[in-house]
Design brief:
Layout lengths: L4 H15 L7 E4 L2 E4 L3 H8 L8 E3 L4 H6 L4 E3 L1 H10 L4 E3 L10 H4 L4 H5 L6 E4 L8 H11 L3 E4 L19 E3 L2 H13 L6 E4 L7 H21 L8 H12 L4 H31 L34 E4 L3 E7 L15 E7 L1 H16 L7 E8 L2 H13 L6 E4 L6 E6 L5 E7 L8 H11 L3 E5 L4 H14 L3 E4 L23 E4 L3 H13 L6 H10 L3 H11 L15 H4 L2 H8 L3 E7 L5 E7 L18 E5 L5 E7 L9 E2 L4 H15 L7 H13 L4 E5 L2 E7 L3 H13 L4 E6 L6 E7 L2 H4 L1
Parallel strand pairs: 3-4, 5-6, 6-9, 7-8, 7-9, 10-13, 10-17, 11-15, 13-14, 17-18, 18-19, 19-20
Antiparallel strand pairs: 1-2, 11-12, 15-16, 20-21, 21-23, 22-23, 24-25, 25-26, 26-28, 27-28
Helix pairs in contact: 1-11, 8-11, 9-10, 12-21, 14-15, 16-20, 21-22
């Protein structure tokens, strides 16, 4: 495909895979390294051949030379099959398979793709073979090689790339992903080394134009014979496809895109079905359980459970702040505490601490997007050399998180919060031993930042003012954006010590995520510290150019319902009545982006675009229907106020939202790591905020004899407790589904016996 259509299609295909519950792994070669999953800039690099003319087409024969000579390469079906098989990928979706060229009985021009299907146990999903080839001889050759050919349709008709029927028949057909996945898995269980070809017809909407395109194919083939192109090996296919596009005045390109998007959709459905089969077969003995081994305390630094895990790769995201162990005691119904005595009840133990919660959420979100991202999140936190410290380290390792950021100390206890709840879950008292965070050595933190060179640093409000100021200053010098989570009303203003009104040329902190109370306290304190009275602050406010049009749009937004589904939540009038918009705008010279958590009223983002002519917001206008106000100031700049309603939850569902704010921030951080210019793209921002809102929900529903658990990986501890209980009552998992829109989320269904139901 021509550039940039090829790049747009690659992005579209990856989006389709995610929407259908899969993880896209576009395969290519960059500087002699095989990439199973390409970063956005790598996709652009391979797509723009004009700017990168050294990119080569890589078949099996080319792999050794291309890797050795450090070349860039686009992989053919044969080499992609090899790399997919090596990395354990079971399904590979593409446009069209190579095959026997016309006249191949004389020229011996047969694609290496066919032979590779005999060596790689991978399901290849395509729109058949390219229509420029000899389809009949290709099918005959695949039969000789022993490769199953299955039409993914209601009949055995084999497709012809641009048209749904070629006139040839496949030996088999199926039209559902479960059957296709079962074919693949059966071959794998038998130890067979060959793959399977699934031929998916182009969508019916493109059938009519396909007939016209096929005539152009025949003409292009005749021209190739006449001008000698048909004898030029791997140059033939690109030339023919380009010529067909010319002859059809571009009509073949939309068909080409449609068939590739269709095979990606079908391929993902087959892959998801295969994964469910694998999970169900393993569920009998591999359920996760919570096994916590408590060893006698050791006060020596050579305790192996406290030894940080070494990681060679630098972290892209560093999160600095508190880690803690939460111990929660709850009284049963109709029970009360009496002096000098104990009562029966429940005691649970879990990991906590704002920075740790955020780090786990970010880690799980990144790994859900790409398993290769397991090393990209680093938590820097003070941990004592005691049993609670060992628990933090061991549980972090089990999650897959790095522990090389733990700063061990023998002079302070690991942070512990011991809470006592009444039977309704209300807090009646407790003890918080959290002093260790003040012992976090600033020099050690700065050394970690220098060694890691992350692309984003997040701080929680538990840190001392000295540490916050030093880290912000260091990040500003290195050009690393800072994200601040205020933690509490009292601690929310500690970050203001990092602001210098006299030298402030721009925002020292790129992102902050206060709730409404924290925002108000930060606003008042900034005024008391005269941070909102400096010349630099006034210049920034003047540059925003907020006038009567902005005020009018804001008033219109304030009249909108906070939720389109639940009018009992009222309107967004708090934006004006409580001065939320004004306070946020006044803080924009200090914080470029504010993500304001409003509880069940949703999320408000207020941010400022400056000197970025490429920002998509510059072409936007205020749109009350879309819940956004866009005020344009100096050229290349604007201020955005946008509301995201809270998620809809069924009233009969039990919801646990403990740590929801931390989970939201962690998910948002993962999105920023993957898309640094996230706030410049309105559609990407919408997706990121909705994902962040969704990660904090955890729901259970009992229907008759069935328990349905909807959970996020971020609530894995809750999920493990449920699973452990159900194993005890011998109620196995019946079904697991992945939420197609949000791969972090799962729905599990259990059959309940009477004892388990009770």
């Amino acid at each position: 495909m021509p550039h940039p259509t090829n790049l747009d299609t690659a992005r579209s295909v990856e989006r389709i895979v995610r929407e259908n519950g899969g993880i896209p792994a576009t395969i290519g070669i960059i500087e002699g390294r095989v990439k199973i999953g390409l970063e956005p800039h790598e996709l652009e690099r391979l797509a723009d051949v004009a700017s990168n003319p050294t990119v080569v087409k890589v078949s099996r024969r080319d792999i050794g030379p291309v890797l050795s000579l450090k070349k860039d390469g686009g992989t053919t079906c044969s080499s992609t099959l090899i790399f997919a098989a090596l990395s354990g990928i079971k399904v590979f979706a593409t446009g069209g398979l190579g095959g026997v060229h016309r006249g191949g009985e004389d020229s011996m021009d047969v694609s290496a793709d066919l032979q590779e299907l005999t060596r790689c146990s991978v399901g290849l999903v395509s729109a058949g073979v390219k229509s420029i080839l000899d389809i009949g001889r290709t099918l005959e050759y695949l039969e000789t090689l022993g490769v199953p050919v299955v039409s993914y349709a209601e009949s055995n008709d084999f497709p012809a790339f641009y048209t749904r029927r070629s006139g040839f028949q496949s030996p088999w057909h199926t039209s559902d992903p479960q059957s296709a996945a079962s074919i693949l898995r059966t071959q794998h269980q038998l130890g067979m080394s060959n793959g399977v070809m699934f031929a998916v017809p182009i969508p019916e909407a493109y059938e009519e134009v396909g007939q016209e395109i096929q005539k152009a194919v025949e003409l292009a083939l005749r021209e190739a014979d006449e001008n000698g192109m048909s004898r030029r090996g791997k140059e033939v296919t690109p030339w023919l496809l380009k010529r067909v596009s010319e002859l059809t005045t571009g009509k073949s390109l939309p068909s080409n895109i449609a068939l590739i998007e269709n095979t990606a959709r079908v391929g993902t459905q087959i892959a998801a079905a295969y994964a469910r089969m694998e999970n169900n077969s393993n569920s009998g003995g591999s359920q996760p359980s919570l096994n916590i081994a408590f060893n006698p305390p050791k006060h020596t630094s050579d305790d192996p459970s406290l030894t940080p895990s070494p990681v060679d790769s630098p972290a892209k995201l560093v999160i600095i702040g508190s880690s803690a162990v939460d111990i929660t005691s709850q009284l049963p119904k109709e029970a009360s505490l009496t002096s000098h005595s104990t009562v029966p009840g429940s005691v649970t133990l879990s990991l906590g601490g704002v920075a740790r919660n955020i780090a786990e959420a970010a880690h799980r979100s990144l790994v859900a997007s790409s398993p290769a991202s397991s090393h990209e999140t680093l938590l820097v936190s003070a941990v004592g050399q005691d049993s609670f410290g060992r628990l933090l380290s061991e549980e972090s390792r089990q999650i897959g998180m790095r522990t090389d950021g733990f700063v061990l100390t023998s002079t302070a206890r690991t942070a512990v919060c011991n809470m006592m709840l009444d039977s309704d879950g209300g807090l009646t008292g407790g003890v918080a031993d959290m002093d260790i965070i003040q012992s976090l050595d600033t020099a050690t933190v700065l050394d970690t930042l220098e060694n890691q060179s992350p692309s984003l640093v997040a701080l929680d409000g538990n840190l001392s003012e000295k540490t916050l100021s030093s880290v912000v200053r260091s990040c500003n010098e290195r050009g690393i954006p800072v994200f601040f989570e205020p933690t509490s009303v009292a601690k929310s203003v500690r970050i203001l010590s990092a602001m210098d009104a006299n030298t402030m040329a721009c925002w020292p902190v790129a992102f902050a995520s206060p709730n409404l109370l924290e925002l108000a306290h930060m606003y008042r304190t900034a005024g008391e510290m005269e941070l909102t009275q400096s010349n630099a602050w006034w210049q920034a406010i003047d540059a925003m150019g907020l006038g009567s049009e902005y005020r009018l749009s804001l008033e219109q937004l304030a009249r909108r319902d906070a939720s389109d589904r639940d009018q009992t939540k009222g309107t967004l009038s708090f934006l004006l009545d409580r001065g939320v918009a004004q306070m946020a705008v006044h803080l924009l010279p200090l914080f470029q982006h504010l993500v304001i958590k409003c509880g069940d009223l949703g999320v408000i983002v207020v941010f400022r675009i400056t000197a970025n002519p490429d920002s998509k917001w510059l072409n936007e206008r205020s749109n009350i229907h879309a819940r956004q106000v866009v005020a344009h100031g100096q050229p290349g700049s604007c201020v955005v106020v946008k509301h995201f309603p809270s998620l809809a939850l069924d009233p009969e569902v039990v919801v646990n939202v403990t740590g929801a704010g931390d989970s939201l921030v962690g998910s948002l951080l993962s999105s920023l790591v993957q898309t640094p210019q996230l706030f410049e793209d309105l559609h990407a921002l919408d997706t990121a905020i909705q994902q962040a809102q969704k990660v904090s929900t955890y729901k259970t529903i009992v229907q008759d004899e069935v328990l349905i658990i909807k959970y996020s990986r971020l609530q894995s501890k809750l999920y493990k407790v449920h699973w452990q209980s159900l194993r005890y009552y011998n109620s196995p998992c019946k079904e697991m589904q992945v939420d197609p829109a949000f791969p972090l989320h799962f729905k599990l269904q259990f059959n309940l016996n009477p004892e388990a139901k009770q």
